[in-house]
Amino acid sequence: MVHYRKKDHFIAVLLIGLILFSCSKITAQETSNPAIVISKDLKWSERMALSILKRDTKAWQIDNNEKTKWDYKLGLVMTSFDKLYKETNNPLYANYIKDYAETVINSSGKILNYKLEDYNIDNINAGKMLFDLYARTKEERYLTAIKTLRKQLETHPRTNSGGFWHKKIYPNQMWLDGLYMGTPFYARYTAEFEGGQHFDDIAKQFEQIHLHTLDQKTGLLFHAWDESKQMDWANKVTGTSPNFWSRSIGWYMMALVDVLDYMPKDHPKRKELIQYLNEIAKAVAKYQDSTGLWYQVTDAGNKEGNYLEASGSEMFVYAFAKGVNQGYLPASYKKLAEKGFNGIITKLITVDADGEIHITQVCASAGLGGNPYRDGSYEYYIKEKIKTDNSHGLGPFILAALELKK
Questions:
Q1: What is the separation of C-alpha 111 from the centre of its chain, rounded to a whole number of angstroms?
Q2: E strands, 131-266, where?
Q3: What's the whole-model pTM score?
Q4: What is the pLDDT of residues 241-253, one digit of tens each?
Q5: Residue 29 lies in a domain
Q6: What is the CATH number of the domain that holds 122?
Q7: CA-CA to 376 of 20 to 30 Å: which in 22, 236, 282, 325?
Q8: Catalytic residue, candidates 71, 177, 299, 389
Q9: What average pLDDT does the segment 110-135 reach?
């Protein structure tokens, strides 16, 4: 009898083991799609998009996320897929967006893990994918979500001069990142639903950033500004953070060219924004490396620890190329964009035997304040984690490739 129980126990354990092994195999299969074929004859935008689809069958799995979430980085990738779908009409890309949206927005339009009262400007960014998704599907939940995000901007806390705080937990602060997170969504919403009545307010966001973060010596913009000048990272006279971070300047430049898509050609602030774009483009061009790329800390060159960073370089390429394509920048910037993109594909892209491509040297994240404390020093920026296929480097690569028709 005792012998039978031991045998029975052994069989039970074995069965459990087989079930767990089987589940792990299913999970592995669900997170990748070996059926996707990536030809080297495709344009770079599709090679990257198909590589993403091959690695992560669900968009929320990007960055090795363990569960779905409403997230500005995933919103960035979805924005690139949206533009790629418009270019190719390939339903693979539209379905990828829709599948993600269905995991983060329920049937009544409530957004997963979103709280309006957090007043986090990052949370607005993923809303950009919803405009075209709503137009394609006519599902009311997406319109409800769009209106929820617009409602946040109505009461979002501001500096005394009218600029959106980056987050409620970062009072009195404007970051360059926030311009991209909030203004393109705001611009499209006011253009499509409000008769364009809020473009003065949108322009104000750029005016405040330009006024308070511009460095007269280099022409570059500091990463952030603290109106209260109370943060340890803030200059006690100007309130600015101490360094230039390429991706933050890239966010700002992408915001400019994307907002201009919606601002009426006769709007009195339009010329001002185009002037801002020309000024920052001229400054950024001075720091382009001979490889065509830009460094993590924009003005520090090959100082020890500094490195040629993917996402900032991609964003500059995108802004240069789109700026020329739309007539905002002189044609000479197209050559700089071409040089930058060639640098990306020769220095930062790796290709697997099956055609899958990867983007390397992407700064995973960088910010100011918080816990553990981020002081904005040179040492801080160069020591943040560097990753391959981080979402910050995926979306802008597709966007840059599309603008250059690569």
A1: 19
A2: 173-175, 224-226
A3: 0.92
A4: 999 999 999 999 9
A5: no
A6: 1.50.10.10
A7: 282
A8: 177
A9: 98
